[in-house]
Amino acid sequence: MAAAFTALRVLLGLFFLLTGAAKLSEQLSADLHRHMKSQFVRFAGVFPLKEFGFVPEPGRYLEVVGWVEAVAGLLLAFGPQLLQEISNFVLSVVMIGAIYTLLVLREPLAMCAPATLCLGLLLLLNIRGHAAPPKPKFE
Question: Does residue 41 sit in helix, strand or coil?
Fold first, then answer.
């Protein structure tokens, strides 16, 4: 079972690395990058901290989310356990923000499905994805 969770962690980490890279560069898919840029204009308008006077510039928002996804995805896939746990938490917060944003924009629920699935898998890894602590030798 541990191998299945390891495979899930690596695949999910690589997925986030890829989605982060797609937000940062046109080299993977120019059409997808342009679409993301136009979407983040909308996303910036409903940014959760807007109530406190913080509204990010859409291009910078796209870059920050892209870098966070890419770095946290890389650490989730290949980092030491402590950094895996931290990146899992960071990516969970990003997915909660994505779901919030899509719901506030009144997007169809099907648009929330990828972020919800990713959040569920991250939470599964957080709850069940770690090896059992070693037993003391002198028991």
Answer: helix
